[in-house]
Amino acid sequence: xxxxxxxxxxxxxxxxxxxxxxxxxxxxxxxxxxxxxxxxxxxxxxxxxxxxxxxxxxxxxxxxxxxxxxxxxxxxxxxxxxxxxxxxxxxxxxxxxxxxxxxxxxxxxxxxxxxxxxxxxxxxxxxxxxxxxxxxxxxxxxxxxxxxxxxxxxxxxxxxxxxxxxxxxxxxxxxxxxxxxxxxxxxxxxxxxxxxxxxxxxxxxxxxxxxxxxxxxxxxxxxxxxxxxxxxxxxxxxxxxxxxxxxxxxxxxxxxxxxxxxxxxxxxxxxxxxxxxxxxxxxxxxxxxxxxxxxxxxxxxxxxxxxxxxxxxxxxxxxxxxxxxxxxxxxxxxxxxxxxxxxxxxxxxxxxxxxxxxxxxxxxxxxxxxxxxxxxxxxxxxxxxxxxxxxxxxxxxxxxxxxxxxxxxxxxxxxxxxxxxxxxxxxxxxx
Length: 431
Hints:
The structure is a single chain. This protein has helices at residues 30-43, 82-86, 125-142, 169-181, 199-211, 237-245, 263-266, 274-281, 285-319, 321-324, 326-369, 371-376, and strands spanning 47-59, 62-68, 75-81, 97-107, 112-122, 159-165, 186-192, 218-223, 250-254, 269-270, 381-384, 408-413, 416-421. It is of the alpha/beta class and 431 residues long. The chain has a 5-stranded mixed β-barrel. Strands 7-6-8-9-10 form a 5-stranded parallel sheet, with helices on both faces. A 3-stranded antiparallel sheet has the order 11-12-13, with no helix packed on it. The longest helix has 44 residues, at 326-369. The chain is rod-shaped and about 200 Å long.
């Protein structure tokens, strides 16, 4: 409010230029504040807003209505010309969901702020569905529905968080069917509004509370069937992002099989109905007991077969000769040693006998070649006893020319040696 202040007639000559410059001694005239408020408010552009009509009163050419936010406890009164209402193909009623073009107006004389409806349009089912689909595609493009983000549910949750309506059939279905399947299961129930403008805030609050508890293994959001408008909170963007941000696995069990709020896409598991959710979050105790018995029987068979196989192997090992009669191996080796000893002795004896025979034979050969044997047969060895030529003593006479007449000779016969003198000789003629 820094505009030049207008001074009313008969007022002070100096008026503060801004509201911050006013003081008890130098205030603004009330009309100046009202004018500045009117100027400031009327600068605000008109805006399209969405809400629900909770009050509608016609008064001649004008009407007064109250719009309430679809997701929060916020209401706003507004005025509208009757001719704007008359343009609607379907008359507006209390509870109608609409979009309205609102323009803020300030009534100078009374100092009242009024929201004037310049145009208004009902939101039909087709519009709601189209809006939901646009939001679904936008969130999918962000990756909020990707399978890689989804968390696996525990095999056997100890404590289940349940967010549902107050004393609703969905709550009874989940509790009853889960207890029938697994009697030991425990629930942490949070009863909230599941439709209306407070539903989103209450569901998000319960969701975050249960997610903060370490003993809650899985969270189920359950609601029975209803009209599209009743299920709109479960396609709210704020709720979808809250579910995507929790650490605990979330199961969506909204309406019937045909109902498909966006919560089904972001949840870690989608159940077609609350009853189906109970069947999918806890196992059937009879089926699990049957599996345990089957596993026990299979384990017993496996152990029995293993023991039987090992017993057969032990019996086969014990029946082998080496284990049945361990001394047999030693006896067999002792027999081998004895046999080999006999063979060695026989081989050595034979070798010694052959060598002895060969030695006798060689001795006979040596004796046969001995000069003594020749002498024994009557031969004699004639040697020079000492000769005329030096160095000839002891030379064996092989030719008559070696012993001219008068040569001293030494003759050796088998019985000994004697001397002789050559009387000359002649050469023997060849035979």
